[in-house]
Write a structure and sequence with these properties.
Length: 844
């Protein structure tokens, strides 16, 4: 084996051009596979860095959304009544942005955004996570509301923010303006329990009002905000513990007859709201659900690209074997066995593939980071570690070995059976009698796979184009979205209103600003709020749920976002009620008694058509409240065009717009329409917000166009990468076809010379060679076309506005493939017409 490896390196040094092409072909294929596998390993396969992660399970009300569905009373009930869990923990998710500040650094020190997660007191204990410095939370830290203002830092944040200083213990900090004390640092490597999110600060759940001072009745069964994980007792399995979980969830529902029914936009929720357990070794993640399907599609695509690369290398090896016919014949003539010869040739190929795998690791490191850059913009950075671990290295090595065997075995077997007499005589013209040999079959396979990938890429491109050109009901150009939340820092009542009003006045005074407004929900932002509504003159049908989506906006909101007003008028300043203080913990929807000015609302066209199909909705009234217990009567004063708020693909829902402060003063998003590029105003708006209060950070700024693009990021990633790999596959197939036809021409020089000496014209020679090219392309297309039509059905869920059998995409991809591969075959065919008959006749 060692002799064969040394000989392989010696042969590669002597054939540098072959080595470079073969290694590069395999490096691209192996690198692409390793890059996708790196993300699959990180997001799907990798276990949490905790003790015995295989014992963890995720509790889920909705199996497809395990990160939502529980409130704090649910957690306490499940914790105290289960028999299957050694421990049950709760957390507020993967981390939400908060304003973090160290007062000791100076009175003028600005706040910074950090990711914070609120956890139960047994969080670290159940996970088996230790401390690097100080102590972690205990159950005693989560007993009394507001009594434990303690914070635990992640190890990475401690190193980055405090340079790993152990004297950080006991240091005072503020989170959203509330004081906390650092009591410890979690062990190195622990990044929380949510894949894609890495909390930097942990605080007890009982400190929720200090972290978010505008939260109201958080400790109720109507405030679902917690994720639950459990560690199974020894001897218990997920399947054995699931029935108990279902029983406990039914008991929770029985104990809560007022539990709010499923929202109108999720009519199947009750069927799925049964409670179940999911494997928890890898934690939970909405990000995982978002990328799992695209990564699966991309893994199949890059696998096909690797097959094309393997076919190319196999073709190179077959050509190289033809050049080494005499060497191989001499080895056989002097007594070498075929098995020994095949083994040596396979080792040479494996050496090439391993070198390609090493180069592919470099490509994968670069490619994985490109994939991360294609992910949608987030408030907090995506916390995904794509550093190769032992699984990634093992995968790359295994793929390299398998590739070497696939590429090398067939050429080695073919090379070990030469015609000894002709080979020893060095009769180069004796070969190539077969018009469709193994090499042409490999190229036909490449053409078939390339056609499949091109058709898939064409479908994705057209689907993405449909999404990009879709009219969402608003104008997304030149609009900046600015998110900030002073309510979390203690602003409330009239003080909060004044803050927003002053900020809005400052922004509207900027010369580049055309319009500015405030809104609770902006299109495609991912948030939703609905209420139960009774429309005058309309009786809800039995299968309809009396819930309609709501938004609270200021005047000029529709002008700012370019939403056309169809009927009536926009909101005015006098439509806003005066501020009335609220009692603490008053349920949402009851914050303010109705003021003397009449409550008004604007509805979208879906409301107008559904509830008032044959008359104008202007002047009509509706009431809303918590299950109609409180009658709030509103008059419709306007109708606006439908807007897609909850997904580009989602059907347009009924939407009611209320004046800015009609239902209480809470968080608002600033929307700004500008004359030119809105991103140029980012710094200026941050400066104005900081001038009002430097302790309130701007959470996020992005354009409405970027928010739109985030909503189709999954489709954009798949389209971009499938398009790239489709073009790469086509180029590899064209190179393979060119190589086969070029060698065929070089080995038929004498035949071509004789034909021309006997009177054959150049056009006839050209047609002779092109017929062989056309045969290979036709066979590949005939195989690839039905395979592509069948395979594209698997990606139908990614498509929008067209079917998987879209004729334009199939026809265009087929034409492009035929044109490129025909060009690859035409070049050597053209060269064949320039053969000098006298030179050809003296060829041997």
């Amino acid at each position: 084996m060692l002799r064969d490896v040394r000989f392989a390196f010696r042969m590669l040094r002597q054939n540098r051009a072959f080595a470079a092409v073969a290694i590069l072909s395999l490096a691209l294929g192996i690198g692409a596979n390793t890059a996708i596998f790196t993300l699959i390993d990180t997001v799907i396969l990798r276990s949490l860095p905790v003790q015995k992660p295989e014992q963890l399970v995720v509790l889920a009300r909705y199996p497809e959304k395990p990160s939502t569905g529980f409130n704090y009373p649910d957690y306490v009930y499940l914790r105290d009544h289960n028999q299957s869990f050694a421990g049950l923990i709760a957390s507020s998710g993967g981390g939400s942005p908060v304003a973090f500040r160290v007062p000791q650094e100076g009175a003028n020190a600005n706040s910074e955004l950090v990711a914070l997660t609120m956890v139960s007191g047994n969080y670290f204990e159940v996970l088996g996570v230790g401390s690097a410095v100080g102590r972690l939370f205990t159950p005693a830290d989560n007993q009394t509301e507001g009594a434990s203002p303690y914070a635990v830092l992640s190890h990475d944040f401690w190193q980055r923010r405090f340079a790993g200083n152990p004297n950080v213990l006991g240091r005072g900090i503020t989170i959203n303006g509330s004081p906390f004390t650092i009591i410890g640092v979690a062990q190195a490597g622990f990044t929380g329990t949510a894949v894609g999110n890495s909390p930097e600060v942990y605080v007890p759940i009982m400190m929720i009002r200090q972290v978010n001072r505008n939260v109201r009745q958080w400790n109720t069964r109507h405030y679902w905000w917690l994720t639950l994980l459990a560690r199974l007792k020894p001897g218990f399995t997920l399947q054995a513990a699931t029935p108990e979980m279902e029983v406990l969830c039914r008991q929770i529902d029985v104990n809560d007859p007022e539990r709010r029914p499923a929202p109108a936009y999720d009519k199947d929720a009750e069927k799925r709201d049964r409670g179940t357990l999911l494997p928890g070794s890898g934690g939970y993640s909405g990000f995982r659900n978002q990328v799992q399907k695209p990564l699966t599609v991309l893994m199949v695509v890059v696998g096909l690209v690797l097959l094309i690369g393997c076919a190319n290398v196999a073709n190179l090896l077959l050509a190289r074997a033809a050049a080494r016919r005499k060497e191989i014949a001499i080895r056989l003539a002097v007594g070498a066995g075929r098995g020994r010869l095949i083994g040596q040739l396979v080792v040479e190929t494996v050496v090439v593939s391993v070198l390609g795998g090493i180069a592919g690791l470099v490509f994968s490191w670069w490619g994985a980071r490109i994939l991360l850059n294609l992910m949608p913009r987030r408030v907090l950075p995506l916390a995904v570690d794509v550093t190769p671990d032992w699984r990634v290295l093992s995968f790359a090595f295994a793929v390299s070995l398998l590739t070497g065997l696939i590429c090398g075995l067939l050429p080695a077997i073919a090379a070990s059976r030469p015609n000894l007499v002709s080979a020893l005589k060095n009769e180069t013209a004796a070969a190539a009698r077969h018009r469709f040999d193994v090499r042409r079959a490999l190229v036909a396979g490449q053409v078939a796979i390339s056609l499949l990938l091109l058709i898939g890429a064409g479908l994705f491109v057209r689907s993405l184009r449909n999404l990009e050109t879709l009219n969402p009901g608003f104008l997304r150009e030149n609009v900046l979205i600015v998110s900030l939340d002073p309510a979390r820092s203690g602003y409330k009542g009239q003080r909060l209103r004044d803050y927003y009003d002053r900020l809005l006045d400052r922004v509207q005074a900027m010369p580049e600003v055309r319009a500015a407004s405030l809104a609770e929900i902006t299109p495609l932002a991912g948030s939703r709020w609905n209420g139960d509504v009774s429309f005058e003159g309309y009786q809800w049908k039995p299968k309809e749920r009396p819930y309609v989506d709501l938004n609270v906006v200021s005047s000029r909101y529709f002008e700012t976002l370019g939403i056309p007003l169809v009927l009536g008028r926009d909101f005015r300043a006098e439509d806003n009620p005066p501020f009335t203080p609220d009692p603490v913990d008053k349920p949402r929807g009851n914050e303010e008694p109705m003021p003397p000015p009449r409550p008004v609302a604007i509805v979208n066209e879906t409301v107008a058509k559904h509830f008032y199909p044959n008359e104008s909705p202007l002047g009509k009234r509706f009431t809303m409240g918590d299950k109609f217990k409180m009658e709030n009567t509103f008059e419709i004063i306007g109708v606006v065009k439908d807007v897609k708020y909850f997904g580009i693909r989602a059907a347009t829902e009924s939407m009611i717009y209320l004046p800015n402060w009609r239902l209480g003063a809470e968080s608002r998003t600033l929307c700004v329409r500008t004359a030119a590029n809105p991103e140029r105003l980012t710094t200026a708006i941050r400066r104005e917000a900081g001038a009002l209060d430097p302790t309130i950070p701007v959470i996020q700024t992005l354009t409405l166009a970027q928010q739109y693009d985030n909503n189709i990021s999954q489709e954009r990633i798949v389209t971009t990468l499938c398009g790239f790999f489709g073009v790469l596959a086509l180029l590899l197939a064209a190179i393979g076809l060119y190589g086969v036809m070029a060698q065929s021409v070089s080995r038929r020089v004498r035949e071509i010379g004789i034909r021309m000496a006997l009177g054959a014209q150049r056009g006839e020679i050209l047609r002779l060679i092109l017929r062989e090219t056309a045969l290979v392309i036709a066979i590949g297309a005939l195989i690839g076309l039905p395979a592509a039509i069948a395979a594209t059905r698997l990606v139908a869920s990614f498509l929008y506005g067209l079917t998987p059998q879209d004729p334009l995409s199939i026809a265009a991809s087929t034409v492009v493939l035929i044109a490129i591969t025909a060009l690859a075959g035409y070049v050597p065919a053209r060269r064949a017409t320039k053969v000098d008959p006298m030179v050809a006749l003296r060829y041997e």
